[in-house]
Amino acid sequence: xxxxxxxxxxxTIMEIxxxxxxxxxxxxxxxxxxxxxxRNNFLVYVxxxxxxxxxxxxxxxxxxxxxxxxxYRRRGIGTGLVDEVLKRTGGYAMVEVRASNEVAKKxxxxxxxxxYTIIPNYYGxxxxxxxxxxxxxx
Length: 138
Ligand SMILES: CC(C)(COP(=O)(O)OP(=O)(O)OC[C@H]1O[C@@H](n2cnc3c(N)ncnc32)[C@H](O)[C@@H]1OP(=O)(O)O)[C@@H](O)C(=O)NCCC(=O)NCCS
Prior knowledge:
The protein is an alpha+beta fold.
């Protein structure tokens, strides 16, 4: 089940984040900011009342972050969360991906994203690939 983030999810989201991005996890402050300023655009995927994944995005389809708890990966949960963004934008989305994040690149290609441009040193230590997905005509 996908629903909006609730404040009681915060500790679990922090655990998912640290597991997914051990070198550069978002802080509690960052999640709190998005939960306050973008409350409709911070979604969680819940199993037995506990979040196992989240996505944060802007209303124009810019994906800020997505992570799925390791034990729940390759079950279509990430796809389900990106689909929620696509539903709201009519099929458009964009995302920055670390150049070395092979899994994320495969994931987004699978969802119909392709390389738009590269931003050198976007992460300080690494380039970003900007990947976009265009609406698919009927
Ligand atoms: C990227 C991530 C969100 C994908 O979530 P997920 O729920 O496992 O993705 P899905 O099950 O919806 O996968 C959809 C497709 O993406 C591709 N894919 C996903 N994970 C993959 C992997 N480890 N290796 C190869 N392809 C992969 C496959 O084509 C997959 O379809 P399939 O399982 O039928 O082969 C998850 O791996 C994650 O949290 N990674 C760490 C955080 C991260 O890198 N976030 C992205 C930052 S921009």
